[in-house]
Specification:
Blueprint lengths: L2 H26 L1 E5 L14 E5 L1 H4 L9 E5 L29 H9 L6 E8 L4 E5 L2 E4 L2 E2 L22 E2 L4 E5 L9 H4 L2 E2 L3 E10 L5 E2 L1
Antiparallel strand pairs: 1-2, 2-11, 3-4, 3-11, 4-9, 5-6, 5-8, 6-7, 9-10, 11-12
Length: 214
């Protein structure tokens, strides 16, 4: 084998190894992301850059109340305003468009091509009773203190929200955006299964003047 060909093969191997390591770190440990909507305002604003902790997903850890998480968007969001999509006895978001082939699973879950994610705050945990009334959130009949909300924010079901006065199912969380009037969240589509949670927001690294944990 001549020297030039050997150098080319070595470079290809180095690039391949670096690519595989980057994918492993991104999927199992941590990854950057960008805030694209206003549902977490004022805590998070559009175009801010974050680092997600994905080790919690890798180890199947249940997030804590108050954690800001990202999760795979439920399927057929546009249909959730229909009564047909509402099941108070099983308040869990639907995921009906799962990829089937190994290649589609790889591009969707690992490369995240064509995958939509939401970012919200965990409000209630498995086994807890959630009730929204009088503009507030109540967990197990106790008003939830939410000092991260702007003054004067009222929490109600909004235009399409239907999930209220229920118990969070096992291995699920109930999450909402801090910008309650401009957030499509668990009030609309139900609770998020643990396996659909992608990561917990760890660090905001842009803009630089807001660098630090969130």
């Amino acid at each position: 084998m001549n020297r030039n060909l050997k150098n080319i093969i070595e470079w290809i191997l180095c690039i391949l190894i670096a690519f595989i390591l980057a994918l492993l770190i991104k999927y199992y440990i941590g990854t950057p992301t960008i805030v694209k909507k206003t549902s977490m305002f004022p805590t998070l604003k559009e175009n801010q850059r974050l680092i997600l902790n994905r080790w919690t997903r890798t180890t199947s850890q249940m997030p804590k109340r108050g954690d800001i998480i990202t999760f795979e968007a439920p399927s057929n969001i546009q249909n959730y305003c229909s009564e047909d999509e509402f099941n108070q006895n099983n308040p869990v978001a639907k995921y009906e468009n799962e990829p089937t082939s190994w290649w589609k699973k790889f591009t969707y879950y690992v490369l995240e091509i064509g995958k939509e994610s939401y970012i919200k705050r965990v409000i209630a945990l498995p086994g807890e009773h959630v009730e929204i009334k009088n503009g507030k959130v109540y967990i197990d009949n106790q008003e939830l203190e939410e000092d991260y909300l702007q003054d004067g924010v009222i929490t109600d079901l909004g235009e399409c929200g239907k999930y209220n006065d229920f118990i969070v199912p096992e291995n699920c969380v109930f999450a909402m955006g801090d910008n309650r009037e401009d957030s499509i969240d668990c009030r609309v589509f139900g609770c998020i299964p643990l396996e659909k949670i992608e990561g917990v927001v760890w660090i905001r690294f842009w803009p630089l003047d807001l660098f630090g944990s969130v």
